[in-house]
Amino acid sequence: MIGPQASKVLLGNWTGHSTVPSHSLYPHQWSWDSAFIAIGLRHLSARRAQVELESLLGSQWADGRIPHISFSPSVARDAYFPGPDFWQATTRGGVETSGIVQPPVHALAVWLTHQADEQESVRRNFLARVYPKLVAWHAYLRNHRDLGGHGLVAIVHPWESGMDNSPAWDDALARVEPAPLDSFTRRDTDHASDDDRPTDLDYGRYVQLAATYRDHRYDDATTPFAFALEDPCFNALLIASEHALASIASALSLDPSPHLSAAEALSKSLSTLFTDGIFRARDLKTSELVAADTISGLVPLLVPGLAEAAELLETARGPRFRLGEVRMVPSYDLTGPAFEPGRYWRGPSWFNTAWLIHRGLSALNQDALAGGLRSDVLELAAGTDFAEYVDPFTGEARGARDFSWTAALALDLERT
């Protein structure tokens, strides 16, 4: 039973209104982390899971975006970089945040949290209070971030993908002149091995992209984006969350059809990213699909009614990812030229993407593969002290320990 250990991690990382991913490496509230965390918290306390999501939505901007970090005023301002002084973004409610976003898994997390204790959800009027915020969030993405005109949402920073250091971003990042190394001080390498983290060169590029967006007041219409890509995972999660919004609307006796229509349109557009048995990101600066095959291209397995599901499943089981043969699901093509088994998103297997793939496999009635992946997640979570990610061949722990979404999603797989 993993429950007691997972519960200890989640309780230890709870701040009173939200859960930090890691007290050392990530001491604030992160957007998609909180969504994944709520999915696990719902088994311990549906009310606490609701509060987790409500806390995150409390940092929503007037334009509807949910920023990728909500900064805690109780944490030293220089404990994390880039911190609030760098981003210079404050909501009308006085919450200091970052200016970029992360993948939209929130509506799915809200729906699963509601289902965990419908009576408590209704008593607290949970769905009715968060539904308009989620609608505004999705509207921001569809109305402001269809930068390519393809009906897909574009990310404008690697951090927005949640898969910061993925090889899928290498060519686009190479066009970015990095911020000088003496202009900022990294904090992540204070708590994690340099070998596990992005290089200084890449980090300088991340900083420059964020600074340019900030200096243009986070205006999507006027910022000269040097980095803009349509990411399969981001859009697949938007589709899944539109389906969740349809369920939420129905529960509130509202019309679900706008959400189902949005999901259908996004699914058709997503198909334009499919090639060679996998979904690949489109670089909007070149209009070409990137060559790198990553876990992002497998996440669409969870999209309901996906036309490419059978071929995508074959790729997942093939030599590029070896699903069922290696530990969980590697974040990058095992045969790819940029593969590194221990470096951030360049090969290691992650628990959140394993959870997403498991959800897709279950929906496709791939019971043997889903069961094997579930067992692997539970074994690795317990055996690595809830590591942030692991080596896909050895299962060796990498990154932070006592990582919140690892504990949360392992708990969810054990309980469901």
Task: Describe the protein in words.
This protein is α+β, with helices and mostly antiparallel strands. The chain has one domain: Glycosyltransferase (Alpha/alpha barrel). The protein is 43% helix and 6% strand. The protein has helices at 3-12, 31-41, 46-57, 84-87, 106-116, 118-123, 126-144, 170-173, 200-215, 232-251, 257-270, 309-317, 351-363, 367-383, 404-415; strands at 29-30, 69-70, 89-90, 96-97, 154-155, 229-230, 274-275, 278-279, 282-283, 288-289, 349-350, 389-390, 397-398. The strands form 5 sheets. Strands 5-6-9-10 form a 4-stranded antiparallel β-sheet. It has a 3-stranded antiparallel β-sheet with strand order 11-12-13. Strand 3 (89-90) and strand 4 (96-97) form a beta hairpin. Helix 2 packs parallel to helix 5 and helix 10 (232-251) runs antiparallel to helix 11 (257-270). The radius of gyration is 20 Å and the shape is globular. It starts with a helix and ends with a helix.
List keywords for this structure.
416 residues; Glycosyltransferase; 3-stranded antiparallel sheet; 15 helices; Trehalase family glycosidase; hydrolase; 6hp_glycosidase-like_sf; hydrolase activity, acting on glycosyl bonds
